[in-house]
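BUG-227 | component: ligand-complex export | severity: low

The export step for fe (ii) ion jobs runs without errors, but we want the raw record kept on the ticket for reference. Input record follows.
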Amino acid sequence: MLTEYHCHILPGIDDGSDSVETSLKMVQRMYDQGVRRIVATSHFYCHREESVAAFLEKREAAFRALMEAGPAVKDIRLGAEIAIEHGVSETPGLQKLAIEGTDLILLEFPYRKFEEWMEEEIDNVIAKYDFTVIVAHVHRYLDYYTEDQMDNLVNLNAILQINNEAFENKKEKKLVKQLIAGGYPLIFGSDAHNLKTRKPNWDLVKKKADPRVVERSDRVLDRHRIV
Ligand SMILES: [Fe+2]
């Protein structure tokens, strides 16, 4: 079942979908491209949010509004894209931001030079909650990190999330190919925010990715279910 692991389809909660109408269209576009399961990963910045509880309340309201409008894909799971910031691992209630029903947590590195504390925050998150970390759009750090730092990043013992658009960029595609050849655990997502500039783009994956690699991605959600 084609699974979208990273997108901003919930209406009015972050810089993604601006309305229920846009959300419905985004989900419809995904459905038309073959997606049957979606993890909604709204941005979470610990320094901006009042609390995890307040964020969850907002997210629940946005989710309810979308579901009441009857989206084309019914299987929508809630998660978050958590920005790695100083002290993020100490955020009270952080465990509630894991993808619902799983031990998976999606973390986004800052878009700048790598610094040691970023990895320390990840280590703390793992040590404290025993989560499986997903590194969001791992290829987007190619412009910021040295080769050694990239090497370190992909070997963090995390699941590596790839944005579908990586297949369109020569340098990023090369990295994805290396990761596939190296047997790294990869999952895919559109990171769609809207219908124009950052839109659902699963047609790219269908065209350019080995179906077996996509199937492996799809299975990750089931393999990490917690009972
Ligand atoms: Fe995102």
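Assignee comment: Attached the raw record above. The chain has one domain: 3-223.
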